[in-house]
Amino acid sequence: MSRIHSNGQDAETQPGSASGRRSRRRRVLRALASMAAAALLAAVALSGLAAWQNTYDLREEHVVIRTGGRALHAVLALPDHGRGPYGVVVFVHGDGPVDATHDTFYRPMWEAFAKAGYASLSWNKPGVGGSPGNWLHQSMADRAAETADAIAWARTRPDLDSHRIGLWGASQAGWVLPKVAATTPGIRFVITISPAVNWLRQGRYNTLAELADRNATPAERDAALARREAGLAVLRRGGTYADYCAAVPTDGTMTADRYHFISRNWTSDATADLGAAADRGIPTLLVLAGHDRNVDAAETEAVYRRELPPRSLRVEHYAQADHGMADLEVVGSDTRALLTAVFAPRSLYTPGYLNSLRAFTERFNP
Question: Model confidence over 102-126: pLDDT tens digits?
Fold first, then answer.
């Protein structure tokens, strides 16, 4: 028979006894099992939520576009519902080694266009995702010719409406879209997001904006502008990459390919092409961000209003957006940005932007 201690507990179930230890272990194991089961259920639920939120009403078709003697690997994102022929929005990337989906972040826009009855056409830049070539060897004229070839390809598809072909482009595409609009017949509309106008002024603005953002001292500001002027001096005299490295202290971010790209494009200015496109009266949606460190939105708006007829230009401002139309409240926190990208990717964009894309393109439906 078990002994009873003065505290009234059975000796076999006291904390220090073997039986008590086994009982405690069983309770701990049951608790851990319950926690593991709850964690598993939560993981399954969150996995399902992420999968659902990253599923779009689209049918994506991988296609190949021939341009300049090479093949571009592309994606044609068709509406998941309805019957064609669909209008088509041709995407023109900004700077960087961008693939057709822009690491999936184009899909919310593709879905917005699909809801308006439009397909979206986008491709891996040369040298990205299996597309041959090197995008850093392209001029803005090369990129415009590539876009024109993509438009010509789209016009061969019976499921696409050749009378409803529009352009969407961001940032560096500001030097490409006006060229295409001025030289390619039959463009129905243009949507341009945070476009640059003049390469040199844009670069200076970006330099000063980033310095201001990190509260640089006047001495740091002067040093940065001096480095910039030294680099421009090399470009003006047609200097080589070695000349640039000798003249400008570098941290390795300026590669030979990058210098080659800049040397081909540093005189870019969209003003003349905007003027050439103006006579066509192509409806243009200019979208500008309230917190753009890359492009001077005020200058861009002034040039577009000067060069394009008022009847063809619509300007929209998004006060809480950054250069890429991301919502500042979301991307201001790395953790929140990551969670939003996984569980609510449409919410990465500033409120109203996706609906605006849909509403603007619906205007051109029959």
Answer: 999 999 999 999 999 999 999 999 9
